[in-house]
Amino acid sequence: MKDLILRVNTLIEALPYIKEFYGKTLVIKYGGAAMTDESLKHSFAQDIVLLKFVGMRPIVVHGGGPEITNIMEKMGKSSEFIDGKRVTDEETMEIVEMVLSGKINKEIVALINHHGGNAVGLSGTDGTMIEARKLHESLGLVGEVQAINPQIINTLDEAGFIPVIAPVGIGENSKKYNINADTSAAAIAVALNAYKFIFLTDTPGILRDANNMDSLIPTIRVNEIDDLIKTGVVNGGMIPKIEAIKEAAISGVDKAHIIDGRLPHALLLELLTNAGIGTEVVR
């Protein structure tokens, strides 16, 4: 009986959050270990399905850098990076699109549907969703987001589907661009006026001391971000994520979260429990 009561109490604990987030748009950047571990893949898909069925509107934007590198190596092509960005020639762009829009996107869609959802895979080129322009000549076909056209996302969402988006942009003369998934997700969150913007990462959140797991910073205000970068608290691969969050918050997104995607059901732990996990960024 105690176990049954505990289960009921868990549901009751989630109730106020379900009420608060009902009908709200959540943009979720899916990446890291949660995309590579089979058990975590399934728990992520289950989380997305549950959020949809309790009335929320999850939008998934995914990356896939390690898989792109892996496929390139198998094809005998080396990867070159400048300031963390993959130099992308025409052949690399074909591989990027094949891996992101084809392999990874379809795997995520299949998993969500396997667990009872109704997901649809999209590329940023569909419906000219992600308009892009070249970021820098030295990077080749690496682009930056110029505009988001959210009509296709809204249409699918309103019809009860879960959009799953690969960050490939399209520019002038139908030129396709490799777009950073973090900045793509932020731009989509702004365009959809998302209630929450969530990053799944391979860290517990923002740590004041990288060597001390107990130094998690539970809440950060947007005006603190620059100082955290200057002092080195935020560094490496976390910088583009926190900068994407900053831009989204300045542009109107209410709250962002950086959570540990290595934890099973990380989304539910953050969104539907009193304790929560990770770091939240607020305006």
UniProtKB/TrEMBL annotation:
<dbReference type="InterPro" id="IPR041727">
    <property type="entry name" value="NAGK-C"/>
</dbReference>
<comment type="function">
    <text>Catalyzes the ATP-dependent phosphorylation of N-acetyl-L-glutamate.</text>
</comment>
<feature type="binding site">
    <location>
        <begin position="64"/>
        <end position="65"/>
    </location>
    <ligand>
        <name>substrate</name>
    </ligand>
</feature>
<keyword id="KW-0067">ATP-binding</keyword>
<feature type="site" description="Transition state stabilizer">
    <location>
        <position position="241"/>
    </location>
</feature>
<dbReference type="InterPro" id="IPR004662">
    <property type="entry name" value="AcgluKinase_fam"/>
</dbReference>
<dbReference type="InterPro" id="IPR036393">
    <property type="entry name" value="AceGlu_kinase-like_sf"/>
</dbReference>
<dbReference type="InterPro" id="IPR001057">
    <property type="entry name" value="Glu/AcGlu_kinase"/>
</dbReference>
<feature type="binding site">
    <location>
        <position position="86"/>
    </location>
    <ligand>
        <name>substrate</name>
    </ligand>
</feature>
<dbReference type="GO" id="GO:0005737">
    <property type="term" value="C:cytoplasm"/>
</dbReference>
<comment type="similarity">
    <text>Belongs to the acetylglutamate kinase family. ArgB subfamily.</text>
</comment>
<comment type="pathway">
    <text>Amino-acid biosynthesis; L-arginine biosynthesis; N(2)-acetyl-L-ornithine from L-glutamate: step 2/4.</text>
</comment>
<keyword id="KW-0418">Kinase</keyword>
<keyword id="KW-0963">Cytoplasm</keyword>
<dbReference type="GO" id="GO:0005524">
    <property type="term" value="F:ATP binding"/>
</dbReference>
<keyword id="KW-0028">Amino-acid biosynthesis</keyword>
<feature type="site" description="Transition state stabilizer">
    <location>
        <position position="29"/>
    </location>
</feature>
<keyword id="KW-0055">Arginine biosynthesis</keyword>
<dbReference type="InterPro" id="IPR001048">
    <property type="entry name" value="Asp/Glu/Uridylate_kinase"/>
</dbReference>
<dbReference type="InterPro" id="IPR037528">
    <property type="entry name" value="ArgB"/>
</dbReference>
<feature type="binding site">
    <location>
        <position position="178"/>
    </location>
    <ligand>
        <name>substrate</name>
    </ligand>
</feature>
<keyword id="KW-0547">Nucleotide-binding</keyword>
<dbReference type="GO" id="GO:0042450">
    <property type="term" value="P:L-arginine biosynthetic process via ornithine"/>
</dbReference>
<protein>
    <recommendedName>
        <fullName>Acetylglutamate kinase</fullName>
        <ecNumber>2.7.2.8</ecNumber>
    </recommendedName>
</protein>
<keyword id="KW-0808">Transferase</keyword>
<dbReference type="GO" id="GO:0003991">
    <property type="term" value="F:acetylglutamate kinase activity"/>
</dbReference>
<feature type="domain" description="Aspartate/glutamate/uridylate kinase">
    <location>
        <begin position="24"/>
        <end position="260"/>
    </location>
</feature>
<dbReference type="Pfam" id="PF00696">
    <property type="entry name" value="AA_kinase"/>
</dbReference>
